[in-house]
Amino acid sequence: MSEATRVGSRTGYLHGLDVVRVLASCLVLYTHIHEWFVIKDRNWWLTDWVQRNVVDTFQFNDRFSFLGIATFLVVSGVVVTYVTERENPGQFLWRRVTRIAPLLWVVTLIAWILINLGQQVAQEPMPDRLGIDDLARGLVLANYFVTPLHAMIGVTWTLVVQIGFYCYVAASIPLLRRKPWLPPLIAAGVCFTVVLAATGSRNPVVQELLKICAYMPVLCLGQLISLVHTGRVRIPGALAVGAVQLALFFWMDRAAEVTNAGYANVRTVVIVLLLTAVMIKAKGRVARSTVIRNWSRRTYAIYLIHLSCVFVIMDHVSPLIGPDAAVLLVLVTVAGTAEILHRYVEMPAERWLRARRSPVRQ
């Protein structure tokens, strides 16, 4: 979500992935707007029409749940794999985490303040007040490893999954350079073993580890697309390893039951993989447009801040001006807030970090 789509000279800038990111941001935003109407037990003509004519017809998860998140996970797997050719494990892990952290800190603080002001900022009910200890845990995502869980930003569980993937990729970089098909295959075996051994545990740390393993195949499938695109793995080999990863995800979704979001998760991942494989080579006018490129750069800010905007604005404004105008105000607010966060938090932090980075391996 926060990783740029600029890669090495072998492939150039992946303009098509900008389009995929933009689509993912729209899907995630739509899902949570629709979710607000479901939580409040209200109907809206647009969500009703989409559910009836698109979601039900093509048998997606209700409200397109997991479609946007799966898209972001696959794209993340694609993009971060490129830099493994020129970054050592320490550089790789440090740069991934420092891309995530600044916006996470600021938006977590915003959500914490809103919750303590009595606002709903997520799907799950929250306590009337959260302490400094809750804020501190949220800033480093440690809130997912304790009970009770207070997820101030409802989508940050995916960042925990991504960081788990980053740790694995960092550890496997030497092997990824010599035998690039092997790390995603080993990951499948590790995830299968962990889930098999730990399913049923009520320990919050173990449960979070299960979640990381459950969604790791989605990121590994994105990694395989990247390896094929750069010519590091041939298509038959990638299809074989990909089949293992997809079968593992199917098992976790249906048999182990360690995923959530609906009955169409596997179908959703397949659709996202096909879309990404097609779009990764796109270089047309739309893909190269300034609008798409700038929007893509702001998708991480949109991803983190949109829930607070959706729930607070819809709760207070919808009864006054109706759902149509309220949703329009949500869209404007998300766009404006994301622009502020990108321009005054994300980019200054990136410039500061870039100035202090050691040179990458050429």
UniProtKB/TrEMBL annotation:
Keyword terms: Membrane, Transmembrane, Transmembrane helix
GO cellular component terms given for this protein: membrane
GO terms of molecular function: acyltransferase activity, transferring groups other than amino-acyl groups
Stretches assigned to the Acyltransferase domain: 15-336
InterPro entries in alphabetical order: Acyl_transf_3_dom, Acyltransferase_3
Transmembrane intervals: 12-33, 64-83, 103-122, 142-169, 181-197, 209-228, 235-252, 264-280, 300-319, 325-345
Protein name, per record: Peptidoglycan/LPS O-acetylase OafA/YrhL
Pfam families in UniProt: Acyl_transf_3
Keyword check for Iron: no
Signal peptide range: none
GO biological process: polysaccharide biosynthetic process
Classification lineage: Bacteria, Bacillati, Actinomycetota, Actinomycetes, Pseudonocardiales
